[in-house]
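Annotated sample (chain length 565).
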Amino acid sequence: MKSPVHARAARRQRDRGVALILVMLAVLVLSALVAAMVFSARSETLASYNYKLDTQADYLAKAGIQEALNWFRSQGYQPVLESQASTYYQVTSDGGPYNLYTANASPVLCSSGCSSNGSQVQLIGILGSGSTNYPNIANSSGTLVATAFSQALSNVRVTGNTGNSGTFSVNAVLVNYQTVNSPVCAQSWIAKPCPVETWLITSQGTWTGNSGSSGTIAKTVETAIIQPIFLPYWSDALYGYCSVSMGGSAGTCTDSFNSALGAYAGGNNHTASGACDSASTNVIAAGANVGANGGVSLGSNVAVAGDVLIGSGAPAGCAANGFSGNASSVLGEVITGPHVEPPALPSFPSDLSSSDTPSYSSSVALPLPSVNPWPSTFPSSYTPPLSGFTGGPCGQGDSCDGSASEPFMINSISIASTNVVQLIGGPNIYSPVYYDIYNLGESGQAQIQVSGYVVLNVENSLSLTGNGITNGISTDIPPEAVQINYAGTSASIGGNGAVSAVVTAPNATVSLGGGGSSGYMVGAIRAANVFLQGGYPVHYDIQLNRLGGGTLSVPVVSAYSRKKF
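Output written by the structure step:
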């Protein structure tokens, strides 16, 4: 047996070197931690640096999108105009009198004048990504559009200083093309109707670091959709700046048709009155919206073939608020819409109501103005009844020629029995004949017949309860051939006849219906308040969405995305 002394000595012998091992393990662990910290710090530094480079390239790509937007808004760009559309692009006409076009495919295909006819229309600024394929047309400076695009948006260098620099390049593909009727285009140098184009923009940002370098340190690609925004003025069958109310025991309705395809229900007038006729040809149970800034009220036996839109910001004194009625009467949906501002009232000459200004109470055909002769291209089926006349109704001492600045002046048109007043208009919506009328009324079986395009500015009273307003060439002309701008506070439209017109009455309560079993309206109405009842339907022409005018903005970005590598 070992003594205690010898036992302790043996244990010390066995433990010799453990401390060294523990120290070495501690050093190893600490070294690993330090190495991990160094690696992490370096990785984060590299990641931060890469992020910086990526961000710099990303901002270059964003700059390319903004520059492309600016370029499409500038005089450097020249779109294909409505008069050129069928020559250069594969498009289809709507068949209407304004010959509005819509592209046959997306992207839009070039039919002639391009380097590769039958291929998509595109402008290429990114080297190696394809070839430009745009019609051989020049901008207002005489430079070919394709050349101007390349000069403005291919390999454009952006430099902060000699060590911080990069480039962007842009491609643009035309994904949609159509034309719309906008009296005032966003760019005054574009002829009417206006082209509305949708472009897919691809912008490539390349960070080179040094301003003199052509190498690539970082690259980013972003895409965007740019297009102008068109807000049609006549987008609804009925709109109240305060309210719209539809009801009555006989019920009433709104529906749509396409004037480019002919008359409502194929021209069968018996189907145009009473209930809306969804079974006949060229009748659409959609699109005939009803809206108001204040409220819309629907009674029993009512059908709205579209949406009900409740706007915001009802005018002062308007008690109407929101939607009331049975939502099942609405074929679309009850939705929140934008606030609609009423237009300015027309101005009138001070002597319009005087006895010096002519009035008419029996049949008469008012003459053409001498400054607006009928063109040879006007439909051959129509012959103006008074083509030999060169004057027009005016007040004594007044000079008027039927133009917007010198409209014809009429104190009163007040006809009854079977009297007919013929108003001669212009050859197209851009050249209407203007009439300023103090009082406009018809009753019994009297009728107002319009031949061509007219604008009727009515100051004091408006009552159309006879046989309505018709157009002498109604198969060729849509409802806005007769534009009625009313400045009074109360108007009546009804009776046995059809009223084919668009009516603006921002201060008035317009009452439709009553007085006959075969009356109806083709067109649209905007008024302070609209009351529709008595089995009097409203047939909205969906062509008003493009034909009836509206506002057209400059191109804006409507969608955006970033490609990942």
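Annotation: The chain has a mean pLDDT of 84.
Annotation: The longest helix spans residues 18-73.
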